[in-house]
Request: fold
Amino acid sequence: MSTGRQAPSGPGPQPRPAGHTPDPYAAGHLAEPYRIKVVEPVRTTTREQRRALLEAAGYNLFLLRSEDVAIDLLTDSGTGAMSDRQWAGLMVGDEAYAGSRSFYALKAAVEDLFGMPHVIPTHQGRAAENVLFTTLVRPGQTVPNNMHFDTTRAHVQHKGGRPLDLVCPEGRRAMGDYPFKGNVDVEALEALLAREGPEGVPLVMVTVTSNTNGGQPVSLANLTAVSECCRRHGVPLFIDACRFAENAWFIREREPGQQGRPVRDVVRDMFALADGCTMSAKKDGLANIGGFLAMRDPELYRQAVAWAVLFEGFPTYGGLAGRDLEAIARGLYEAASEDYLAHRVGQVRYLGERLRSAGVPIVEPVGGHAVYLDAGRFLPHLPPERFPGQALAVELYLEAGVRGVEVGTVLAGRDPETGEHARPPMELVRLAVPRRVYTRAHLDAVADAVLAVFARRDGVRGMKFTYEPPVLRHFTAGFDWA
Ligand code: PLI
Reply:
């Protein structure tokens, strides 16, 4: 009989037999599937200190020092904890300029997990986007995606392309329990490709999970339909794979016919439908830095490598140290393990459930990496120009030193034509949970803080700019209470 023990060497944790779905959070046993071997002390602050720190930072949470933050939910990108196996990998990283052993470890992992033979390491995900779009996108062309992440959109535009979001209608609403709100509207894609063809659409992208509308997954059935549509029209399909493992977990949990399948089999099936992928290894690579571009077509690889050398460095290191490549190769396997994912996705769901059951408005269903507070409904007395998301994020920090991020009017910027604030569909605060960093007690502290602000929500004041930068204003703006 199998003991389920992990082999001490080899590519990483092996998939458990189908049907083994430990979900400690669903079962009420909340033990983390890791032991803590190294700790990073967190400084505690008083409410008065936090009030002064906020004032000094112009009420912009990006301008706080992280040591003044008790629980940092600003992003799940590059903020995860590496495993002992990954740290051990750093020591065997091969720092050769060309032909590094660690590059071949990464290439083997990507080929094994995704079935993609050609891999170009990059310093992070947006660099993979830069290499890919420089190779494929020409001015005036359209690049559809379920929903572009900010950097993907900006890189398409940088090449003169037109980013187009074709997420399904369910994906545009905060309410409703539709299980795959990241799905592409395949009819709209079909119409676009029939109209513009491969001359007008150089590639189709699908982001798994869809970060922009709440970490929402894409079903295998939808990916299959998108892939068939792309093949019919001769247009390559690329997956934005940042959160590939979390997406595969949702397919295994929610999609009819997929229940209980080994995650690595689901991952294989997802990527078999695509011609390539971009990856930020700072998410489901479980690394603190890095990314890659992978593909099947050797001719496209040859073209992309030329740009990669220019932007990132020789193609066997691509802007990374050999030790980073080694950490990513190991992290990809760990991210695709069932024990890890049951806890990871369960942890985010736990936080969401604690809030939802107390009546706090959130984006539903809860996605893979973050809980999104619906600040518009949380603070209905504040109009968009009083920045309800910013006000709520500031109050959460004041309450308990919790740092989230506004995803609403402040982030959206101004309409270049009218000069007015752009009108985003929702006013949100994202609470992104870093991987393997926080325990259930931290999440309880976050939930308690949100509930405390919820209890006094009628007294929360709106905000105004004291300084508004001309571009990317959310990073450096100054605010005060209105
Ligand atoms: O931050 P990068 O350059 O490694 O990755 C860019 C990127 C691409 N696609 C998607 C879906 C992302 O979520 C993404 C980065 N996300 C960040 C930084 C986040 O805070 O969500």
User: Anything to note?
Assistant: Residues 131 and 308 are 6 Å apart (CA to CA). Residues 38-69+338-481 form a domain with the Aspartate Aminotransferase, domain 1 fold (CATH 3.90.1150.10).
